[in-house]
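Researcher: Quick one. two chains, 226 residues in total.
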Amino acid sequence: QVQLVQSGTELKKPGASVKVSCNASGYIFTNYGIDWVRQAPGQGLEWMGWISGYTGNTNYAQHFQGRVTMTTDTSTSTAYLELRNLRSDDTGVYYCARGPGVLSPADYWGQGTLVSVSS
Amino acid sequence: EIVMTQSPATLSVSAGKRATLSCRASQSVYSNLAWYQQKPGQAPRLLIYGASTRATDVPARFSGSGSGTEFTLTISSLQSEDFAVYYCQQYNIWPRTFGQGTKVEIK
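Model:
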């Protein structure tokens, strides 16, 4: 069965960076992409970007341009999200989801990773 | 970017009754519209894609309709497990964008 397992809770100080991992199993990793979605406490879902599992091509939301990097390691079927220069309003749960690409929605989701940014 | 607007923000419905949720896009997304359900402390779950196709294992009481800029999610007879927040998302063009969500609560 398709599973996406994310890394654990991160506690960071303002200005630091965080790298969240998402290990995929149960499907051919390179046949799909990975979406990353953020949810601030008590708020809605915010799409951050997408990376192709095959080419590594990315599409980032404008809001995160310059601070975010999405990468993959096809040898371990793992996707990574790095967010730099963290601020307190980056606090939230970060989700990865299997995303085939444009014209297809994300279908299977990881359990989420809590990133807390506080001095 | 395409702005997705959901209404109402909160919907109070009795168990066994019908719930109708709306989603409007700021420009046409054709049928490239998905609905997600999210319960507290859980990841979102894909319910509907292609505006009207139920995802795997989604009960038949959930149905989606619409195209272009106007979409509807209908839950025909609310069960206790359906009380949650529902989000629409367009995936027609990058960036993908979500609506702000509709909370379906027990009346």
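The interface with chain B takes residues 35, 37, 44-47, 49-50, 59-62, 95, 97, 102-112 of chain A (CB under 8 Å).
Researcher: Thanks, that's what I needed.
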